[in-house]
Amino acid sequence: MLSTVGLIALALRLLNTQALLEDPLFYNPLGGNVPYLEMAERIAGGDWAPDGAFTVNSPLYAYLVALVFKIWGVGSLYAVRLLGAVADAGTCVLVALLAARHFGVVAGWAAGLLLAVYGPAIFFAGELAPVPFTLLLLTAGVALVDGGTRMRTFLLAGLVLGLATGMRPNLLIAGLLALGVPWARGLPSAQRLMGALALGLVLGVAPVTLMNAAGSGGFTLLTLSGGHNLYIGHNPRAEAQYALPSDLDGDVFESMRVLAEEVEGRPFTPGEVSGYYGRRAIAYALSHPVQEVKLTVRRALLLLNDFEATTYASLDYQRHYSPLLRWTPTFAWLFALSAPGMLIARDRRRWHLWIPLVSAAVTVLSFFYIARLRVVMVPALAIFAGAAVARGWTLAQTRSWGSLTRGAALAAVGFGIASLPLLTADTSNDWNKAGGTLRLMGRYDDAESALGRARIANPNNPSTYMNLAALYRQTGRAPEASEAEAQARALMSGTADDMAGFREGVQGR
Fold it and tell me: How far apart are the C-alpha atoms of 494 and 94, rounded to whole Å?
């Protein structure tokens, strides 16, 4: 079972990666992935210590990419994507193993195959992002505490969960939750096992903490990005999903440092910037309780919504190049199947199976909804969905139609909740980036077609018109270039309100 699940998962991810070779952004990544790749190049070149404490959200990911660059050569993006596919296939195997342990072989097959064919997982596995490695480490940590009874097993589990925080700092929540597993499972010597897990967690977090100390001379547990992210979710222009004024796009940490210095009229150290924004976020949240309640409710709904809100790359955009992504199941289907399974898995001794779900929920509700934060819960949902399928199979065999109908009704409710039209896809950013890349490659007709798609997706994106203006000038169409520039200026003037509202919270208004 496990080898079959792993091979199917890997094959689907490799097929998707192969299809994306047609995407002009495949070898020309833009946006938030670029700082990791640039950092990986420096590390591969011998610059192992950071220049100051880490400001990126996933510091260990850059070191993993650097290792790939060291083995296959700098810029080996295809190899990085292949490694992500292998890692995600490993997560599918672990999910099948956990489901089979708790709910039987049918559940193992169902959980593993559901995650193997799950569209967003295939999408993230092919991205230049830490998601597949984060999920593998998190699920491995859960699998270790699931079957372990010895101190060394819990020590290893803590170590693995600690390393997961280097890929996604908010997973420190998962490590802390795991401390309660020996008690929940009723294991003998629970306190000693908790101590072993805590020690492992410290050892897993330590590499990032020590590199921060080497780079800055001070103490930073993981990264300096916490205060910035908290303020993005709690300010006068905050939305339930990730939202940042376009003036601050690019190097967000640096842009927000400059803004803080402009407001306060003095220079800030990186550590001061994070604390500054963290305090502003808490102060704003406490002084606007009604707005915060509304945002929390909407974030809870988005946490369970079918829409995948992304920033670095778009699932909806990649569906243009990958037929596989157009036909694979989305979140609504996985959540629908998992809803009745959650009732089956509510036993205290299975508490650890809920750790990914609880970690994702706490993070999204505390900060903002974005797909790469929500995806942490997907392995748990796949396990619960496997449990539901196994129970449904048993009920069908025993002709327990009443119980089967109630389970199906609950699944239908879950599908309905996930299908609420809360957000809509906007692929203009991706098509705009693709158009700019194609223009620089000299493929002018393809560039104009991509920018035309960007304009259709969102007619109010000023970046599209700036790229069109550059394309028109490069192809000798000066009147059209002037018109596109005028449209861009008019649209950019409309972004001033967003920036003003963001600044108001910084100024404490």
Answer: 49
